[in-house]
Amino acid sequence: MLNKTFIILASMKKKKTNPWTIVGITIAIILLIYWLLAATILEEDENVIPILDGTEQVIP
To answer: For residue 32, what pLDDT band results from cuts at 50, 70 and 90?
Structure first.
């Protein structure tokens, strides 16, 4: 019984994290952040200039 426990612990230590998994998760997080920013900031109309008194002026 004790021998099987040591074998299981040894097999768990041998398992290494694939570096491509880390790269994939990083890219997924960056794309998620970009998507959230695009949904809020980049969606604004490009032809409208905000004026300081609260109104907006459309560029002809």
So the answer is: very high
Residue bearing the bigger pLDDT, 36 or 27: 27
30 vs 44, higher pLDDT? 30
Q: Is 32 a member of any domain?
A: yes
Rg for the chain, CA atoms, rounded: 26
Percentages helix, strand, coil for the chain (3-state, rounded to 5) are 60, 10, 30
58 touches 47 (CB < 8 A):
yes
Residue 13 lies in a domain: no
| Residue 22, domain extent | 18-43
Task: Give residues with Cβ within 8 angstroms of 50, minimum separation 6.
Answer: 56
Its pTM stands at 0.43
Dihedral pair phi/psi, residue 33, rounded to 5°: -65, -40
